[in-house]
Amino acid sequence: MLSNDDWALLERARKYDAHALGNIYDRYSTRIYNYIYRRVGDAHLAEDLTASVFTKMLEAIRSDKLWRTSFSGWLYRIAHNVVVDHYRSWRRDSEFPLDERLVTTGGDPVKSLDVVLTQAQLRRAVSQLTPEQGQVVLLKFVEGMSNMEIADIMGKTEGAIKSLQHRALDALRRVLTEQGAI
């Protein structure tokens, strides 16, 4: 639920108030970037796609195609669509890039490599789910959203989200078992 301050901020944004738009970007950009990064696994690409989300948000505001209930849900839906559009227009390689954290960490490189390999293995497993299953897993377990919030973002009922989540976890378990991860 949005507070009165949030509604006032969003109303100012609808009038193209640069300060309000900057506040929205500051408030949501990190969360949207993290969501996208977990979907694509590439920092530079996630930055580009995050910028696309906010560009599309501005285009939607200009054409009065606004959110209905949850502003953050609306932004996540835009982010999901941007990622889907990206994958439709570009065939991704089967290999994942070496995580930049391997180069920059001052800690134990073997431990860092284990973490990166585990993350890459999990990204590969999630990428083998259906797009909806992957989105539910990321929103629920990575972003920490409630089933109600996910339902709002995906335009489904809460019961449908619970069912989708159950099927996604079963499929993820199968994929990870086939990979020898569990």
Label this structure with key terms.
single chain, 182 residues, mainly alpha, Rna Polymerase Sigma Factor, Chain: A, 9 helices, 76% helix
Measured distance between first and last alpha carbons: 39 Å
- Kindly provide the name of the CATH class of the largest domain: Mainly Alpha
Number of domains: 2
Poorly predicted tracts of residues: 92-105
Which topology of the largest domain does CATH recognise?
Answer: Rna Polymerase Sigma Factor, Chain: A
| SS field, number of helical segments | 9
Name given to the CATH architecture of the largest domain: Orthogonal Bundle
* Approximate shape: globular
Helices and strands, with pairings:
Layout: H1 4-14, H2 18-40, H3 43-62, H4 71-89, H5 100-104, H6 109-127, H7 131-142, H8 147-154, H9 158-178
Helix pairs in contact: 1-2, 2-3, 2-4, 3-4, 4-8, 7-9, 8-9
Give an account of the 3D structure.
The chain is mostly helical and 182 residues long. The protein folds into two domains: 1-92, Rna Polymerase Sigma Factor, Chain: A, CATH 1.10.1740; 97-182, Winged helix-like DNA-binding domain superfamily/Winged helix DNA-binding domain (Arc Repressor Mutant, subunit A, Orthogonal Bundle). Helices cover 76% and strands 0% of the residues. The protein is built from nine helices and no strands. The chain has helices spanning 4-14, 18-40, 43-62, 71-89, 100-104, 109-127, 131-142, 147-154, 158-178. Helix 2 packs across helix 3 (43-62) and helix 8 crosses helix 9. It is globular and about 55 Å long. The chain starts with a helix and ends with a helix.
